Amino acid sequence: MTTMQRQMDAKLALKEFFGFDGFKGTQQQVVESVLRGEDCFVIMPTGAGKSLCYQLPALMMPGTAIIISPLIALMKNQVDSIRGFSDTDHVAHFLNSSLSKTEITKVKEDMSHGNTKLLYVAPETLKKEETIEFLKSITISFVAIDEAHCISEWGHDFRPEYRRIKQMIKDINDVPMIALTATATPKVQSDIQKNLGMQEAVIYKSSFNRDNLYYEIKPKGSKEKVFKDIISCIKSRPNRSGIIYCLSRKRVEEIAEMLTLNGVKALPYHAGLDAKTRANNQDAFLMEDCNVIVATIAFGMGIDKPDVRFVIHFDVPKSLEGYYQETGRGGRDGMEGDCILFYNPSDIEKLEKFMKDKPVAEREIGTLLLDETSAFAESSQCRRRLLLSYFGESFDDENCNAMCDNCRHPKPKVDVTEDVVIALKALDSLKGEIDLSHLVNYVIGKKSDTIKDHGHENFPLFGAGKDKDKIFWKGVFRIGLLNGYINKNIEKYGLLSLTEEGHKAIVNPKKFEMAKDTEFAFVTDDTFENAVLESISDEVLFADLKDLRKRVAKENNLPPYVIFQDPSLDDMATKYPITMEELETVHGVGKNKAAKYGQPFIDYIDQYVKVNNIDRPMDVVVKTSGEKSKKKIAIILNIDKKMALEDIARSNGLAYQELMDELEQMVTLGTSLDLHYCIDEIIEEEFQEEIFEYFKRQEDDDLERAVLDFDNDFSYEELQLMRLQFISDMAN
């Protein structure tokens, strides 16, 4: 088969099996590589479509593809997905400990008759002699190892069973292999190839950059503060899906219960729950019967839910690989996702204590991984650049587009050119590979035990940077790492040495500016726990505000939802705003809405607070800059020029529905828009008046009901456009 024929076949099969018109990224190259019978190693970020790389060739090739997968939940999810594209269920099966003997017999019958194209199997099941003997009796097209980072002890989900995969495959049939992972540092990549005997495999490596994800680190503080921050985060994203990760089952249960008490549809997920409850909770999340899942790290590996809008880490992850994998479950549809990590240095210390009884090598690996995580959290550098650098990818932080907290809210910077040179000279003077802690102590002039053991207190550059503290110098050495002046030897647990570029930089330095890294408060367990758990939203005030909204709506001859929507009232009942400036921080209000309708609401809340002697939780108030994004300004200017909405969407890199969502948000916040030029092209004037009168009579703005009420004479999109104009005309 020629390359052109293979490409045509792959594209035709993609359309036939999955209904897609084209491949994403390197998918096509990987599929064609598998069809050629090549071993290949695929490193592709979460959401980029790894599973299609083995699913499509499995459906195209004779025989059954064996997919080795680490989680039962993942297998079920993948099998259900494949069956959804087929007219028969026997096209895909899984084989694991959750099946009964009768179910296992049925799976084997389907495979023996050649009906099954993909078999998902756990490594624990694969290693059984009866499984190997059965698989020898069928035709196998290839073997795919999903979540291949589990093979490496340097990976964040190390599974010892994965170490034996190569031998197990050879025992069955030495067929081609494809290994896939979303997270692989150069060290993990090398480990995977070595353990699978895939040193000659074709490597397909996509960029790790997820430009639609926003990374933010928040200080953890007390339990009360974190819970308020989490509630504020969720309630500012009403009806949005999110995941909250915790390290302990106890904390998972506690947070799920707290969220439920505060009106959030949340469920727990951890290994302590029985299998049926876990499966039901996962399905509830996938089917949108609950908005938030609170989980230990096992949840979500390979779960295909595209619209997760936020991922919160209540506890610090054990590694940056784990952090990247877990945050990667947000925004898989390409729309923005917020990744918020609550950081407390005490959590790092606790994780280090948990490792004290482990073998020395494992403890040193774990400590290095934690060091990388704490450096990422504490750094003032672009978080995207730090994250990508960790995976061996260079990145210009100017391309971050303010999609991390350090770039969106930059700290004041100072010139550190001379300090970088001092750091490089200090490293050079010690000759050899040195750990970061030793280097920092050497520069600041601290006579630690290791400094004295090596006699480094007698070296000329000892104390050369004593006028600045440890946090400052850690940031300076990080600049050296990010710019390739310093090498970190992962094989030797992160020891540092000067590169050739570093030697050149000493002689011909480049100008550098740096903001000081963040020093986070060390919050002990006692301090953290010593807080009263309270309901965040004031239900009495919320009910009163709904009554007030009715009165204001009646005075203005408008439906209540045009004044303020329920999520806005709920946020008011959480934050107790009593000034116009505070009201503008409430979700879905904005400056214009606040000025037009806000006064009676803040007057009422002010009186309510005084009468009930309420201590307002000001730390819950989320302040925003109020500045419109460049994209929103561009949209408004394009509307002023009377551009077609499809053209506006295209010119701003948006899908049409994404543009409509932007317009809805703008109008809800009080921006006035003139969309009559679009409406006039699709709806006659007399019908426009009829639709406006309809919206005036409604208590809410349910568009699906509106479509039915008009007997489908108008589409959802047409009525959505009319509703935008209605709210803009009536409220703004």
Structure explained in plain terms:
This protein is an alpha/beta fold. It folds into 5 domains: 3-205, Rossmann fold (3-Layer(aba) Sandwich); 213-408, 3-Layer(aba) Sandwich (Rossmann fold); 414-459 and 470-514, Orthogonal Bundle (Arc Repressor Mutant, subunit A), CATH 1.10.10.10; 539-620, Orthogonal Bundle (DNA polymerase, domain 1), CATH 1.10.150; 630-731, Arc Repressor Mutant, subunit A, CATH 1.10.10. 49% of the residues lie in helices and 11% in strands. It has a 7-stranded parallel beta sheet with strand order 3-4-2-5-6-1-7, sandwiched between helices. It has a 6-stranded parallel beta sheet with strand order 8-13-12-9-11-10, sandwiched between helices. A two-stranded antiparallel ribbon has the order 14-17. Helix 5 links the parallel strand 3 and strand 4. Helix 34 (685-697) packs across helix 36.
Summarize the structure.
By secondary structure, the chain is α/β, with parallel strands linked by helices.
The major sheet is characterized as: 7 strands, parallel
Approximate helicity band: 40-55%
The CATH topology of the largest domain corresponds to Rossmann fold
Query: What is the radius of gyration?
Result: 29 Å
What's the N-to-C terminus distance? Answer: 63 Å
What's the CATH architecture name of the largest domain?
3-Layer(aba) Sandwich
Topology:
Blueprint: H1 3-18, H2 27-35, E1 40-43, H3 52-60, E2 64-68, H4 72-84, E3 92-95, H5 101-112, E4 118-121, H6 123-126, H7 129-135, E5 140-145, H8 165-172, E6 177-181, H9 186-196, E7 202-205, E8 213-219, H10 223-235, E9 241-245, H11 249-261, E10 266-269, H12 275-286, E11 292-295, E12 308-313, H13 320-327, E13 337-343, H14 345-354, H15 360-378, H16 383-390, H17 405-408, E14 414-415, H18 417-429, H19 436-444, H20 449-454, H21 470-482, E15 486-489, E16 495-498, H22 500-507, E17 513-514, H23 525-529, H24 539-555, H25 560-563, H26 566-575, H27 580-583, H28 590-597, H29 599-611, H30 630-640, H31 645-651, H32 656-668, H33 676-682, H34 685-697, H35 703-709, H36 716-731
Parallel strand pairs: 1-6, 1-7, 2-4, 2-5, 3-4, 5-6, 8-13, 9-11, 9-12, 10-11, 12-13
Antiparallel strand pairs: 14-17, 15-16
Helix pairs in contact: 1-2, 1-3, 2-3, 14-15, 18-21, 18-22, 19-21, 24-26, 24-29, 32-36, 34-36
